[in-house]
Every structure is written in structure tokens, then in C-alpha cells.
Amino acid sequence: MGSVNQKLATQSVAKTFFQYFIPTLLGMMLMSVNVVVDGIFVGNGVGSVALASVNIAVPVFSVIISLALLVGMGGGTLYSIAMGENNDDRARKIFTLSMALITVITVVVSVISYINLEALALFFGANQETLPYVLDYMRILFLSSLILSLEAVLSIFVRNDGDPQLAMMGLVVSAILNIGLNYWMIFILELEVKGAALATVIATAFGLLIYTFHFLKKGSNLKLVKMDWNWRSIKSISTIGFPSFLSEAGMGIFVVGYNIAMEYHVGTDGLSAFSVINYLHVFMFLAFIGIASTIQPMISYYYGAKQAESIKKTVKIAETTGISLGLLFLAIGYFGATQLVAIFGIESESIVDLATTGLKLFFLGYLFMGINFIYMTYYQSIGNIKPSIGITLFRGVILLILMLLILPFMLGTAGIWLALPAAEALVAVFLLIFARKHVMEKTFLWHQVQD
């Protein structure tokens, strides 16, 4: 057993949870700050057209990251289960296969996309005014896509190999460098949108370099070994990682759905108000992703080690943490709505009123979001994929779209803001009534996950 994994075998569940959760949460929060800062630099340094162009090109990130999550979360889960079984050789083969798989997938997708770059840019919504900027940004991202995907996958494996502090350090270094490089390339070198893209890639490359230090640590189990293309393992990795892939894709559906509803029912002011709340949503959303990233390696390891009580304790601690965070975010949104909206410097009173009112309603969703992410990740972490996919689809696609279609006609603009809280609440209540009792009383089928 590697020394970096001994904490999972010997420490209390609560101690291990917070050793994982605190650095993961800090890393996620810094990542969310990074997103906002990028927009500020491009908007102020290049202009509104450039900012719109970057927003149009953002789906490129979603494509790359969703593929990385597909392989990283699937491979990371199988890796931790193997480590829990004390099967180091199998774990290393899974790691090696995952790194090879994401390399091949990224190269194939990037080459096809690069060949059809202009058509892809137009599909994402570019027009004659924004097209040059969009092409500049997308060209650099696709040429450097392997750096982005390898960084995302390796960070997951480093966390699964018992080193969440290093995973956080990679995010910290990357975020700080990205901020500095954005300023240098946009304001000093005047590289415009190209500078923003280069800043992101260079900063990510340094984050990837930080993660490679894990290979040098005593007790690290992450090693590249001789492998073959085991199609059964590839299927297992893809199947287990699919809910994470779907969750990332669901973020795009969320943004598009809210934009359409706002444009139809409210107009341009509504779109502007939603953009403010969507920026704030990144902070809160990544906090719950942090909880999911914390419990995945723990539950997968305990599952492999056949420690049923440790799995149940992990879920209980995560529930308490998720609900506590939800209450904190709701209080911040309710009592600090005016101050939060003011940060964005909006001068229109109608937009400020819309955003302030909307923020108080929208933040109700955070009371329930933690529960949904916890159970989605729980099922994924033990290889029981159908419930995980079901939770992801219902909270992020089916019920969300249904609420956006129905509630505005019943409640007006308030119905739009309440669409996400309603979808999250319905799924969370269902899980607490029906799934929680089953999980806490569950007799595990330890042979369930096979590769």
C-alpha cells in the first residue's frame, strides 16, 4: 500500500473527509474566481465584441473538459476501487489506460474540429463581427487541447491517489499564473483574444507540471506501465464516467434554457440580469462539485476495501456539509443580494432590480443541490451508473426544462428564477425519501464493479 493512501485505510472517515474537502473546496473557489477575472480582462482590455467572442468559444472548454471527466472520473473510480482491494498492479494498468485513452480521444476530436474550425465557430453562434476573434481563440485551444485534457485527468488521479493538497496546489498555481499572464498578454503585449487563450494554456501547462511531482513522492502508486487496449476496461471507464460527462453537458443546457426563457418572457434586461447571476452561480456550483470530488475517491476506496460502514459515514458527513453550505449560500444571497449585484457595476435600475430579486429566489436551489450531487457521486463511485445518470438527467435536463416551460406562465419572472430550485428540490426530496434509507441499510454487492 502506498503511503499516500494509508490515510484512507487507517484514519477516521471524518478526518479524511476534511483533509480532502478543504483543499478541494479552496481549489474550486479559486478556479471560479479565475473564470470571472478572465471576463474582466478581456472586456476591459479588448472590448465588448471580444468578450462576446470568448463567450461564443467557451463550448470548446466544455467539450474538452467533458471528455476529460468521462475518462478521469471513470478511470479514477476504478483506480480507487483497485487500491481498496490492494491490487496495485490493476490500479496502475487502469491509470495507464486512462491516460492513453484521453490522449487518443483528445487528438482525434481536436484534429476533426480544427479541420472544420470555421464551420464550428459559426455553429457556436459567431457572426462576421465576432468570427475573427472566435477563430483566434478556438485555434489556440484546439492546438493545445491535449494539455488541457491531460491536466484535468491527472488532477483527478492525483486526488484518487491520496494527494488532494497537490491537486489544490496545481489549481492555485494555474489560477494565479492565468491572472498574471492575462494582464501581461492583453495589456502589455496587446495580443488581444489570442493573449487570453495563450494565458489559459500556459497556466494550465504549469498546473500539469505541478501534478507530475506526485510521481516523485514516496509511496505514490501512480506509474505508467505496459498496457494493452483492454476494451472491457475502456467500456467500464466510459460507463462509470458518463454521469460526469452528462453533468458538464447539462451546464450548457442550463445556460441555454435560461437565456431562451429570459429572452422570451423578459427581454434584453432579463438576459443581462441572468448573466450576473450565472457568474455568481459558478462560485456556488463549484463548491458542490468540490464535495463530489471529495467523496468519490473515499467511497470508491472503501467500496474496494469492503468497508460498508465507512461508505455510509462518508455519505452522512457529506450530507451535513452540503446542507450547511446550502444554508450559508442562501443567507449570503438573501442578505447580500444588493452588494453582490453591485460588484458588476450595472447602471440600469431595472436590471439591478431583476438581478437582486432573482438572486434571492435562485439561491434557494442551493439548499438541495448538495444532496443531489452527493447521491449522484455515491452511485457513480460504486459503479452503479443507472441511478447516477437518472439523477443527472432529471435535475439538470428533464425537470429543469419542464420547470422553465411551466413556471413562468404561472408565476411570471419569479417562475424563471425558481425553475432551477424547483428541479433541484424535487429530485432531492425524492432521494431523501426513497434513496437515503436504501443506502443506509444497504448490503453491498462487492463484486458489482468489474473491468
UniProtKB/TrEMBL annotation:
This is Multidrug export protein MepA. Its main location: membrane. Keywords: Antibiotic resistance, Cell membrane, Membrane, Transmembrane, Transmembrane helix, Transport. InterPro entries: MATE_fam (IPR002528), MATE_MepA-like (IPR045070), MATE_MepA_subfamily (IPR051327), MdtK-like (IPR048279). It is a multi-pass membrane protein. The keyword Membrane applies. Belongs to the multi antimicrobial extrusion (MATE) (TC 2.A.66.1) family. MepA subfamily. NCBIfam families: matE. The lineage of its organism: Bacteria, Bacillati, Bacillota, Bacilli, Bacillales. It is found in: Cell membrane. The chain crosses the membrane at residues 20-44, 56-82, 94-117, 137-158, 170-189, 195-216, 237-260, 280-304, 325-346, 358-378, 390-410, 416-435. It comes from Virgibacillus alimentarius.
